[in-house]
Amino acid sequence: MTSALSELTCLQLHRPAASAAPAAWAVWFDELVHVHEHLAAEARDPHVVATERRLARTAHRRASLLRKES
């Protein structure tokens, strides 16, 4: 399993351009979901776990909306 820091770095390096197609952004948001789920799994503080899960759900919804646009 890769570290969360490594995943965040990859996510930033592969961020689509602002003009990218909605489908490209949907894939990026799917990866963001994975990072937040990973951070939630590693967290010990229940508040951090809840926050990371909420952020994962938000990113998942955004990916779904972007897929509908493409």
Please provide a written account of the structure.
This protein is mainly α and 70 residues long. It has one domain. It contains 3 helices and no strands. The protein is flat. The chain starts with a helix and ends with a helix.
Protein traits:
mainly alpha, 70 residues, flat
Report the sheet-strand fraction.
under 5%
Helix residue percentage: over 70%
Enumerate the spans where pLDDT stays under 50 for 5 or more consecutive residues. none
The number of domains: 1
Q: Would you count the extended β strands for me?
A: 0
Number of helices: 3
Order of helices and strands: HHH
Mean pLDDT: 95
Give the termini distance in whole angstroms: 32 Å
- Rg over CA atoms, rounded to whole Å, is 13 Å
Write the SSE topology:
Layout: H1 4-13, H2 22-42, H3 46-69
Short description:
This protein is 79% helix and 0% strand. It is an all-alpha fold.
